[in-house]
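Chapter review: from sequence to fold.
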Amino acid sequence: MKIWLLLLCFLFSGVQAAEVDQFTGINHLKDSSAVIEAEVNRRIQLAIDKANSHYPQPQQKKKLHHRIRPQCDVERLYGQLQAQLAQSLVGQVEIFAEESPQVDKRRVTFQQSVYRDFERLDAPSLVMSERVAAVIRVNHVYLGTDKLGHFFTEGNTYFEITDRMSRGVEAGLLYGEWSESLYFGAQTTGVYSYADLVANFNGLRFWNRILATHADPLKGEYQAPYIACSNKRWVFNERFSFDDYVDYGWDESINCSAMRTEKLLQQFKQYQPQCDGGKVPRRYGDYSRRIINRDDFKVLPYDLQPEIIVSRRSYVHEWNLPGWVAETIHEIRLDLEIWREGSPD
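The token string follows.
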């Protein structure tokens, strides 16, 4: 069991999943939406320019007098957009919001946060990295900078997992639940964040709207694409804005999180965080049960444990997993909790 924990801690410390404290030292913040939107639109334009640029000239064709220019190459466009917006682990826009002096923010250290009593074995990546995201304001919503990473990077993962929306959204939702129950949440930081899932889902909507080849999964209608093909060149067709994406579902003091265990829940609640669940958005319809928590802070439900989610993912992805896989994951999870409780930190 120690070997399992060492492997998990090594993996988790590399992931460095962050949490946000939206309960400590709350002050008024200036709206940073215009600043961040300008950075996003700058990056989209840069991706368009790179996608329209000449292909690299092969070494053996140096004698050619011209280089081939792409003609609305979809794969090249998505590749350039991913390079500008969907960096792994910590996204570019998240880093921009954390570092830009133009973005008004409130910082709380790990030692000041509501997570300060979490122990290394219970929340390895959070305690080892002490990484607590800053809080910013986008329009009327207060949210963690980590949500920008979820929106652009995890939203892109949803987009690719759903074969760019050609297969619907279920595979993306299941991936989000899986990652939040494991390496981006419950097993790494001790926290299962519904607000992360809202940001992920809206990120899927953003990536779907790049070329808008499928209807918006929330509204069920086609929208004007951000980028269009005109005269065999990509052009910026519609400027990006957070208006249609950010709502109170991104705020962890409204769309409140679940803790992996009762112990973590009590350590968290002793600092008296308040959950204002009455403000959670109503617009998500059938998706609400997957990404919105209308209850108070709670222990992670059994149906969101990894062994349950992997079985559901197996069905959607048509994986032919042996029956013992889910049972083994269940046993490992329970053994790990027992080891955590019985081992000195």
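Two observations follow directly from the output. The beta strands are 19-20, 105-106, 132-133, 135-138, 141-144, 191-192, 227-230, 233-236, 258-259, 298-299. DSSP finds twelve helices and ten strands in the chain.
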